[in-house]
Amino acid sequence: PTTMGAMLRPEVRFGRRKGQMREATPNDEDDVMEGIFLPVGVDLHQITILPKAEWQRIQDSLTARARETAQILAEKKARKDLHLKSQALVKNWTHTIAGMSQQKLKGKKVRQEREEEEKRKVDLEEAKYQAQKRKEKIEEAKLQQYYENDRVKSFHVIKITFFLPLIFVHVV
Question: Which helix (H) or strand (E) is 88 found in, with range?
Fold first, then answer.
């Protein structure tokens, strides 16, 4: 019986019974170097073959500084995020120095707004009062101009000359 896995692995014919499949070991895949192609004319005495673990150690030592830098940056970012979160949490507390000063500033701002509103009301009342006074002055000026008119003056002179003797006659 041949299965898909059995088709991929060759049958071992020497050293075992004929047709028996070779048992797969867990490290077989790591030991087999697939896809290594060397250029033609390369001196094999000049090539060093390293185990995978050794190659990984070398790569880790080369990238250690970059990893440390990335880790330091990540820690700084985490600290900064934690600090911002803490500040956001403490921002609304009233029993801290910053909270008390913030409350004082809010109170001062509210007082100033209230005073400004009162000043606006007083200014509005003052403007109404000044407008009323101005109307009264204009009416007085119009009346004065009316009395200074020649027709009205002559009428008053006639009135005074006619009624004045009557007043004295009646009083006597």
Answer: helix 52-90
Question: Torsions phi, psi of 166, nearest 5?
Answer: -65, -35
> Residue 99, exposed/middle/buried by CB under 10 A (0-12, 13-18, 19+)?
middle
pTM: 0.37
Give the dihedral of Cα atoms 9, 13, 16, 21; nearest 10 deg: 20
Predicted pLDDT at 9: 53
Angstrom distance (rounded) from CA 54 to CA 129: 98
Q: Which of 64, 36, 39 shows the shortest CA–CA distance to 50?
A: 36
Q: Which ranges of the chain have pLDDT less than 50?
A: 1-2, 4-6, 28-29, 31, 172
Q: Where are the alpha helices (DSSP H) in 9-51?
A: 28-31
